[in-house]
């Protein structure tokens, strides 16, 4: 065993590591990194899961949460043992991240009052409109406060029993540590944050209390405590250790970093937490995060104001629909290959299709695709109906078809990014991460054309948010070490820590927008916007029958 291998083995055995766990829309992933060098991934574990459409609401069961977490954690332990010959029983710090927003309400006994309402639900229109008007700040349909206020307006029976509500990351963190806290980035998807205080906006809390429709709701008592990156967010309890690792080998007492949302971990995973930086995260949903130098001049329904894990103001373009429809088509083509007697791996299917898209026409040959499985507020769609639409003079080829599907992933995002451009927001760099960027030079190139800006993809892009929350856990471990040792300086601010400690030796591939792609995507987007009338008609004409995934 070489010296570096021995060092990593010793780090795992002694707990000089950081564990990050992220509950994404389709996958729960655990990622273990070296606490001294968080760029080094030591082990991973995953679990695939799917949301359910129950009683016209998108949800996940809490049983599925814990089954998935335990499987991902067990997979990570097995991977560590296979790679390094040692199974960890403790860590330097742990972090939990999950898809943002949504609504998990609990009573005083800690019982869930209604099934988890995810970010994907768009039934909160009246509440979001009332709060946006009252606050002078855009309150998106998926925000936790919109879900709560809609339940208040509708006088849902569970409201009198409500003791607190939180996000998915906040729920898991609470069960593992006993503390009802949130990282400021995730908290900014519950209720607006004041960047000066890095906690809930006190003036807007007062305005909420003054609403006739909110009479009797003591909102501050219902919200989780807000923490920033590096803060002490509690420690793993004995009950929490048994929940995560039913084998009993995981030891309690491990410190936790503040739980964060997937938007915040995406910023960390791309070192995009400083002003004039941004990132695009593509998965089941797709969103862009741009760290602002100054507040926006007006309220825009296409833009949310959230924060980095350190509390700095961010403009977020969030689209409910990302790469799920693309994945469905890839699955169909994969099945075709198998039926034809030439089975391909999932990665090979994507590679083949993406490479074919490069030979398509810059405007996708006149084809228009819509990836809307769920409602899309930016496009004013209450529900989704995936479509492929073309005129008789369009050119239906495989290359154009796949290019249209890839363009559709970025379509709604581009509408929001144009609003940011009109606000005069500029970027020094835009990073992208998510599985669709694993095929080098394709999705990255088309995104650059869609936003007309250079796009970089780092080596860590495919590790995604689980690695991002592991880095935040390492940052917490560094802060804890400094606090215990008087002669140790506290770790640098988050941006400096990322640039020097994590990304100092990383390599990123940057693609500048090609003029043909920019012009071609602009023509596609014009048809895309005009054709939204077809999508709305499909919503009216084709009701959803039964449950879908």
Biggest pleated-sheet summary: 5 strands, mixed
Secondary structure: helix percent: 25-40%
Provide the structure class. alpha+beta
Supply Rg.
23 Å
- Cα shape: globular
Spatial order of the strands forming the largest sheet: 3-2-1-6-13
**Low-confidence segments:** 484-488
Query: What distance separates the N and C termini?
Result: 47 Å
| Strand composition percent | 15-25%
Mean pLDDT: 93
Work out the number of β strands. Answer: 22
Number of helical stretches of at least 4 residues: 17
Helix and strand layout, with pairings?
Blueprint (H helix, E strand, L loop, with lengths): L2 H12 L2 E7 L3 E8 L6 E8 L3 E3 L2 E3 L2 H23 L8 E6 L5 E3 L18 H11 L8 H10 L10 E3 L1 H10 L3 E3 H4 L5 E2 L4 E2 L1 H8 L9 H4 L2 E3 L10 H7 L15 E2 H8 L7 E6 L3 E6 L12 E4 L5 E7 L4 H16 L6 H12 L10 E3 L16 E3 L8 H25 L6 E5 L9 H9 L3 E4 L5 H21 L9 H9 L5 E4 L3 H27 L8
Parallel strand pairs: 1-6, 6-13, 9-12, 14-20
Antiparallel strand pairs: 1-2, 2-3, 4-5, 7-8, 10-11, 14-15, 15-17, 16-17, 18-19, 21-22
Helix pairs in contact: 3-4, 10-15, 11-12, 12-13, 13-14, 13-17, 14-17
